[in-house]
Amino acid sequence: MQITCEISLYPLVQNYGHTIIEVIKYFKSNEQLSVMTTAMSTYVKGDSDDVFNQLQGLYNQPLLSEMTSSLVVKIINRDLPVEDGYLTFT
């Protein structure tokens, strides 16, 4: 099943910019996923198994396993056209 996730990471440390960039690079390293970053969040699209495996693996990375952070994930069970920047409903 194809899914779309909106992911927002909030590292609870003072110097957080590097951590956020590294997490985005981590998701982009998986060629099975489509990753689009905006100023407020990152969208990840792909097969649900690939997306969930990547999310689970994120917390095995030293980058996050050694710090306190909040990760907010919203998931919808379809391929949303987030690249367009908006959705049109009829």
Can you put this structure into words, describing what you see?
- The protein has 90 residues and is α+β, with helices and mostly antiparallel strands.
- The chain has one domain: Alpha-Beta Plaits, CATH 3.30.70.930.
- Helices cover 30% and strands 31% of the residues.
- It has a four-stranded antiparallel sheet.
- The chain is globular, with a radius of gyration of 13 Å.
- The two termini are 24 Å apart.
- The mean pLDDT is 88.
Give the % helix: 25-40%
Spatial separation of the terminal alpha carbons: 24 Å
Give the name of the CATH architecture: 2-Layer Sandwich
Structurally, the number of domains stands at 1
- Strand order in space, largest sheet: 2-3-1-4
Portion in beta strands: 25-35%
Radius of gyration: 13 Å
> Given the structure, what is the number of helices?
3
Overall SS class:
alpha+beta
> What overall geometry do the principal axes of the alpha carbons give?
globular
The oligomeric state of the chains shown is: single chain
CATH class: Alpha Beta
> What is the CATH topology descriptor?
Alpha-Beta Plaits
Given as residue ranges, the uncertain stretches (5+ residues, pLDDT < 50) are: none
Can you count the beta strands?
4
Give the biggest sheet: 4 strands, antiparallel
Query: Secondary-structure element order, as H and E?
Result: EHEEHHE
| Overall pLDDT confidence | 88
